[in-house]
Amino acid sequence: MSAALTAATAAELLALEGHYLDTRQWEKWLDLFTEDVVFWVPAWRDEAEPTTDPDRELSLIYDIDRQALVDRVWRIRSGMSVASTPLMRTAHQVSNVLLPDPPGETEAEVRATWAVHLFNPANGRQHVFFGLYESTLRFVDGRWKIARKKVLLLNDRIPTVLDIYMI
Amino acid sequence: MRPSDIDALLDDRPADGAFRVNRRVFTDPDIFDLEMRHIFEGGWMFLGLESQLPKSHDFLTTTLGRKPVVVMRDGDGRLACYYNSCRHRGALICRLGQGNRRLHVCPYHGWSYDSAGKNRNIKSREQGAYAPAFDKDSHDLQSVARFENYRGLLFASAAADVPPFLEYLGEARHLVDLAVDQSPGGLELVPGPVRFTFEANWKLQLENSCDPYHFTSVHTSYLRLLDQRRAAQQDSKVKSVWNDDRPWAEGAKGVTGGTFSFDHGHVLNWQIMGVLPTLPLYERAEQLLKEFGAARRDWMFNMRNLSIFPNVQIAENASSQLRIIRPLAVNRTEMITWCVAPAGESADARRQRIRQYEDFFNPSGLATPDDATTFEDTQCGYPAEAGWLQGYARGMTATRPGGNPMTAPIGMTPAAGVLGGPELCDETALHSYYRAWRDRLKQGLERDGGA
Fold first, then answer.
1. Would the pLDDT of B231 be above 60?
2. Do B192 and A156 touch (CB under 8 A)?
3. Binning pLDDT at 50, 70 and 90, where does residue B386 land?
4. Which terminus in chain B has less CB density within 10 A, N or C?
5. Which string of b and e fits A4-23 if b means at least 16 CB within 10 Å?
6. What letter would DSSP give residue B450?
7. In this prediction, does ipTM exceed 0.95?
């Protein structure tokens, strides 16, 4: 049994996702996603339009199951990736969480605005990635999980590296 | 700076088995200025693909060094390259990366130009009280000195006194052909360019593409992930050729790859891959065999990193990337990268190519961020001492002038080549970059009479 998704529940789930990344609670972060999660960051076709068809156009990230996220977390924590060592310090801010009307009983597409402040302790450089989320939330095993996360990165001129914990 | 100052930055003594590069070439802003003037604004540069401009009045904008340019297809279908700057006060006339426009109206004072670069209107000209001297000037967009279309790859030179393009490309044209011939429609770009920057000198990107030595150290995490995926026998989303064939594996015997150097600074680093079903090109294997014979077909399936000096690289492995190197400062570089593909491949092949591309090539992928971060660490390391780098010495006793058994069947005669096993990791091909670099800077300085 599920209750219709509330704005508070959706906002908390999205905030929690950022919080787990910012505090390096990787296992808890992974546990927020369904097994068949699609984690998608489109590229931009031109100045105005993001890519829309991941099979015919390029994406920055198109990970189509939870294992792909597990792989990324493994690499981030492996100590073998200089781009991830040290990790950037991050602060996720998620706001303007909007629900569909009416919100679904078992699935709902939630929209939000996000910014992630980054600080690289290796060289002192900082950056802010920002954009829009479209997250499909699904009620499974008694709780809401993220079944699809589309991250529209609005400033896609990437300084050196972009990884899943920076967006 | 004088020509002899440039000579002093390369210790190039082939007879003594020595080739060393001075760290200053990566850190000195005066050298960067010379590179802009005499390499990026002084010779042939890659602009883009003809397939980006299929229709009349299509345009794309880019830069030759610091100079903004626009490539346009006019109403008769002819391509040409102009400086992207209004003749009136200099504003950009094209402000977008790409588009289609019959008439380009300068946003500043409304002068307009057609897609053949001709001035079509000077706002309120009759009322402007212009003197006859003004009427004598051409008001058309200025053409870039040289423009060339080689099999759909567009190049231009801001300087007129350059060798004809085919002479410049030389024998490396065979390698461009290997990419273009994969489809009767030639090459096309997958929509969605990705741009990223790194805080390091542009020549690090040039070197990296011809540097198999870094692969097992910089990409350890990526290689381990592939091992894990293999072990788990995942029905992985990423069917990777790297899973089937590991030419870098310790102990592999015999020749597995090598390098070729060409005049004017072009370089290839390659490895045998095999005609594998995991490659997106596999669907064309039989057809390509019929059209081009076994040798050329098999070369199309080899891993190839081609650099056409100074600003374009085509990398073909499990996927395929076209990248443009755009230096912004002595310690800052922008990369403009595309997934490049044979036009008209099947939807399955295209999807596979794109997935493998994202996995490896993107700055948000599992490999390229480690390269770019390493470039920055290297840039930080250069000032540690004044003097020579020792990273250009591998392969010194293995390099041979001219072609070898691998080049003969495709009729290519490089300036030099190295054949070897996976651990040879030749560095002598990099000499070709630096000799071209030295020659271009010296010629420029000689032309300018010092300065």
1. yes
2. no
3. confident
4. C
5. ebeeebbbebbbebbbbbbe
6. -
7. yes
Q: Residue count of chain B, please give it.
A: 451
How far out from the chain centre does Cα B432 lie? Answer: 15
What count of Cα atoms within 13 Å lies in the side-chain half-sphere of residue B418? Answer: 30
Which of chain A's residues have a Cβ under 8 Å away from the Cβ of B234? 67
SS3 annotation, B264-277: HHCEEEEECCCCCC
* Contact of A119 with A88, CB cutoff 8 Å: yes
* Spatial CA neighbour of A148 closest among A164, A132, A137, A139: A137
Asked if residue A81 lies in contact with residue B369, where contact means CB atoms within 8 angstroms, the answer is yes
Please report, for residues B244, B273, B280, B300, B410, the alpha-carbon distance to residue B276 in angstroms, rounded to integers and kept in the order given.
8, 8, 9, 11, 20
Are the Cβ atoms of B197 and A161 closer than 8 angstroms?
Answer: no
Of all helices (H) and strands (E), which one includes residue B174?
helix B173-180
Residue B238 above 90 pLDDT?
Answer: no
CA distances from A146 to A23, A106, A132, B14, B73 (A): 19, 12, 15, 61, 47
Answer yes or no: do B225 and A159 touch at CB < 8 A.
no
Instruction: Please determine, for residue B240, whether its predicted confidence score (pLDDT) is greater than 90.
Output: no
Place of tokens 């279309």: B149
Q: Do B366 and A42 touch (CB under 8 A)?
A: no
Give B106 to chain A, closest Cα distance, Å. 19
Q: How many residues does chain A have?
A: 167
Closest-CA distance of chain A to residue B95, Å: 10
Q: How far apart are CA B170 and CA B266, in angstroms?
A: 9
Secondary structure element (H or E) that encloses residue B23, with its range? none
Residue position matching structure tokens 């971060």: B373
Amino acid at B440: R
**Closest residue to A162, CB basis, from B354, B364, B373:** B364
Q: Please provide the DSSP assignment of B266-318 as one string.
A: -EEEEE---S-TTSGGGGGHHHHHHHHHHHHHHHHHSEEEEEETTTEEEEESS
DSSP A35: E
Chain A residues touching B337 at Cβ < 8 A = none
pLDDT at B201: 98
The 10s digit of each residue's pLDDT in B423-446 is 999 999 999 999 999 999 999 999
The DSSP output letter for B190 is P
Nearest to B144 by CA among B71, B86, B35: B71
Torsion of CA A135, A58, B60, B441, to 10 degrees: 120
Q: What sign does the dihedral B155-B156-B157-B163 (CA atoms) show?
A: positive
